[in-house]
């Protein structure tokens, strides 16, 4: 999958679409999901043009990777879910049901989330 600069997250990063940041650093932007699936549902995106978790893993600089991991902890603490727990979801590729071709994590919590995947 090649990076599409017209994807919604690229537009948010360029300021073409407004967002309500809950966290921002040199390398990371985080904001509430517009269709939350839990009381806390934050999207965490790198500011670099990475299509997926795999792409980010292979191409991001050490500084970008550290900033991204640090952001997760800071956001979870700010959202008040470190005590009760939260889930991180990175959908990658067709089988992972990735809808936006820009790497992002969903940080969800604020209630019991149930089992990770339904059993077939």
From TrEMBL:
An example Gene Ontology molecular-function term: catalytic activity
Record: active site: 104 (tele-amp-histidine intermediate)
Motif (Histidine triad motif): 102-106
One Pfam family it belongs to: HIT
InterPro entries xref list: Histidine_triad_CS, Histidine_triad_HIT, HIT-like, HIT-like_sf
Annotated ranges, domain HIT: 8-120
Family matches, as PANTHER family: HISTIDINE TRIAD HIT PROTEIN
Protein name: Histidine triad protein
């Amino acid at each position: 999958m090649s990076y599409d600069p017209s994807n919604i997250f690229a537009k948010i990063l360029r300021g073409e679409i407004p967002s309500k940041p809950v966290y921002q650093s040199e390398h990371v932007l985080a904001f509430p999901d517009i269709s939350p699936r839990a009381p806390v549902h934050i999207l965490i995106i790198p500011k670099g043009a990475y299509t997926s978790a795999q792409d980010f893993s292979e191409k991001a600089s050490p500084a970008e990777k550290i900033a991204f991991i640090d952001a997760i902890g800071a956001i979870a603490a700010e959202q008040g879910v470190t005590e009760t727990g939260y889930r991180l979801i990175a959908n990658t590729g067709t089988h992972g049901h990735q809808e936006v071709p820009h790497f992002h994590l969903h940080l969800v919590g604020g209630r019991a989330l149930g089992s990770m995947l339904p059993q077939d």
